[in-house]
Amino acid sequence: MDKTVKIPVYNDAARVEETQDRSAKDRDLSFDLAKKEALLEDEKSKSLDLLKTIVQLRESLKQEQVKTTDIVKKAADLEANAKESRMLAEKELARKTAQLEEEKKQSLEFMRNIEQLKESIKHEQAKKTYAADHTAELEARAKEIAALEAKVKDLTATLGKIASIAEAGKMVGGS
Asked: What is the pLDDT of residues 85-103, one digit of tens each?
């Protein structure tokens, strides 16, 4: 019996080719790895930038929240002041309205008094006119009386003369 041993043929070319393939694959893998590492570094850099932005935004948010709280407090204070001012203004308005009503009442009372005084003045003027007319009439009568008294004196004197003539005539005629 013959024994045959089969030995694979050593093929350097195949091995070289396989090694070259592996080297090319290794290079490709190294290149991909380097590329991915660069991308990873780039993403890490972006992540750090974004993290810094997030931190800054959080700080800004905190500052804005503080500002908003201050603004809310100021708005509440302003609203309280506005309410207080409005209440004071309403009280002042009510007081002024009451004063105005009181002044109106006084004005009406004064108007009534003025009307009464006007009426009194009219009556007094009418009385004065009547008195002036009456005084003129009395003065005219007084003049008439004075004239009549003067005539009475003249007539009395004339009558006295007639009486003395008559008495003289009686004496002369009775003697």
From this structure: 999 999 999 999 999 999 9
CA-closest candidate to residue 124, choices 132, 136, 112: 132
Location of structure tokens 């070319």: 13
7 CA to centre of own chain: 115
Tokens for 122, please give them: 């009219």
CA distances from 15 to 7, 27, 29, 107 (A): 16, 18, 20, 129
| pTM for the whole structure | 0.40
Q: Which one-letter amino acid corresponds to residue 114?
A: I
Separation of CA 75 from chain center:
20
* DSSP H or E segment with residue 128: helix 12-174
Measured CA to CA, the distance from residue 172 to residue 166 in angstroms comes to: 9
